[in-house]
Records
---
Amino acid sequence: MLFTNKAVFLDRDGVLNKDKVDYVYKIDDFQILDGVIEAIEILKKNSFLLVVITNQSGIAKGIYTDKDVQKCWQYLQEQCNFLIDDHYFAPHHPKYTSESLSRKPDSLLLEKAIAKYKIDTKNSWIVGDSRRDIEAGKKVGVKTIQVIGTKAGEEKPSEIVDYQVNSLLEATKIICQNL
Ligand SMILES: [Mg+2]
């Protein structure tokens, strides 16, 4: 089967909203980063499917529930005029619940979206702030962009990444230059 749709996979914390060391699970803490709404509008105008793929191990740790994650997703969609196409999250953590191929750096959630939306990975991208986002993207063969300087806590630039930027808006410019 020929897969022809192009997509941008988006990590959530540190790409769309401000990251916090002690987890983002309340709307009050869900601070959308500068330029994100504009970036989403530009990507949609250029016919990209937008799919959020996020690790939410705070669920495994009992800090919050899947309902909290859904509430944040609903809020994000409202702020972005419902332009994001889908949202997948991995609730697992190996030390608290189980290993999971859904949790980045593994790529099961990306693979599910690729199958569901018939995504052509050669013309698709992942934007993340963590090395594990980039590794997950590499596994499915999309181009990779790391947002630097937004992650709460230490994160070194990934040497395996295709591009590094400071924001989703900057990432969007690179994506649009490579159409
Ligand atoms: Mg992140």
Note: Helices lie at 36-45, 66-79, 108-117, 131-140, 168-177.
---
Amino acid sequence: MTDTKTGHCIWITGASSGIGKAVALAYAQAGYTIAASARSQDALETLAADASDMAGTIVPVPLDVTDKDAAEAAVEQIERIIAPISTAILNAGIYLPVDPSAEFDPAPYLNSMAVNYHGTIHCLLPVTQRMLSRRSGHLVILSSVTGYGGLPTSAAYGPTKAALINLAESIKFDLDPHGIRTSIVCPGFVDTPATESNAFPMPFLVPTAAAAQRIVDGISAGKFEITFPRRFTFALKFLNMLPYRLYFPIVRRMTGRG
Ligand SMILES: NC(=O)c1ccc[n+]([C@@H]2O[C@H](COP(=O)([O-])OP(=O)(O)OC[C@H]3O[C@@H](n4cnc5c(N)ncnc54)[C@H](OP(=O)(O)O)[C@@H]3O)[C@@H](O)[C@H]2O)c1
């Protein structure tokens, strides 16, 4: 575990719901101080109240990650009022399935990039700057197995997650020598509000609390990639190593699309 019990805190974005909320509660249960960010102030306050009888504390820090100045101000506020950030879990994200054979509005593509990729960058850089001055810290970025390779209906979401995997691989080279760890989280399907409207079958759907525990354990172990459930995510990883003449027909057969 990181040293958050001794005067540091964990910052989680997208903490009002789903995976981020479950990770915040898992850390609060274990006695840590969490700065919890998302746009919905009410949901963050409810979350803080839910943790009030736990060993740790959750402090709401409302933030829209698409606002670069607000993200910088949030980091400054957390470090000044709560504690220095030892672990930043950059989890805020939106999932917008698209059908490029029927819809021609660029908005879901641009909004996905604005929240999932640009939003992560807005949070990552100010927190990295502070971690560099301390020569310690852990950056945890939420991607997805959708980032491994193209999948049906993922043309807006998938590229944002592929970009985050590449970002994490790149910063690992640059930040390791400065004492800052990087992790990328690539889950399969997790049972959250984001996936509940999916009309297709979701193999090996993971309950939110189980997903949170996998993430907490992976962070503790200092893993670069945290991926689960492995029987699903390793199969996808393998598929993406195949030549395209095999990849496309297998994915078509598996998903019944295309
Ligand atoms: N569920 C899955 O199967 C799955 C699989 C792989 C990866 N993931 C990734 O895991 C992360 C969490 O997803 P989830 O399934 O837990 O979804 P979720 O329940 O919809 O939660 C998304 C969180 O992001 C926040 N958020 C959205 N836009 C934001 C913005 N502009 N600024 C700040 N916060 C914002 C939301 O809060 P507000 O609306 O209050 O702002 C919410 O707290 C995402 O990055 C997602 O891509 C999920």
Note: Strands lie at 9-13, 33-37, 57-60, 85-90, 137-142, 180-187, 190-191, 206-207, 225-228.
